[in-house]
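Need residues for this backbone.
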């Protein structure tokens, strides 16, 4: 697990961009985002989508549940804040988008664990102070974790 401190929304968005650059070529990857309301999940997704798709209009799909970015779809952004059960996602066919060719980012993923693939990247956002967040990233393959260590803590990886 890698722990990163973000001191602003700009830092959080930049982290999303860095993660986007690392995972861009990995097909079918799922990023499961968790954390309380206003902890930085959507800021992170904005950075990731901007890096991968060049899109500047990124917003949380709280009411639409799903936003699709790129053509063909490069990033699928799912927001489960208003979802009460994984069965709701299944009933609208969203589980078919998970694990396909696109990168799938799921906010509030802890509410729908049942639809997550066996391997996914877990990213947890913890609100520390008004603008400070701790972001914990865990990747079963360790590829993302090692790349982030090399980027943020180069003296520790040598």
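Answer:
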């Amino acid at each position: 697990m890698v722990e990163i401190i973000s001191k602003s929304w700009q830092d959080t968005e930049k982290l999303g961009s860095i993660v986007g650059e690392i995972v861009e070529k990995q097909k079918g990857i799922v990023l499961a985002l968790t954390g309380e309301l206003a902890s930085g999940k959507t800021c992170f997704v904005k950075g990731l989508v901007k890096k991968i798709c060049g899109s500047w209009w990124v917003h949380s799909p709280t009411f639409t549940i799903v936003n699709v970015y790129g053509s063909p779809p490069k990033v699928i952004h799912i927001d489960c804040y208003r979802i009460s059960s994984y069965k709701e996602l299944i009933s609208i066919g969203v589980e078919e988008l998970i694990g396909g060719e696109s990168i799938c980012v799921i906010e509030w993923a802890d509410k729908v664990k049942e639809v997550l693939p066996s391997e996914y990247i877990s990213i947890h956002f913890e609100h520390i102070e008004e603008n400070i967040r701790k972001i914990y990233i865990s990747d079963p393959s360790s590829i993302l974790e090692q790349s982030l260590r090399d980027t943020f803590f180069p003296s520790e990886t040598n």
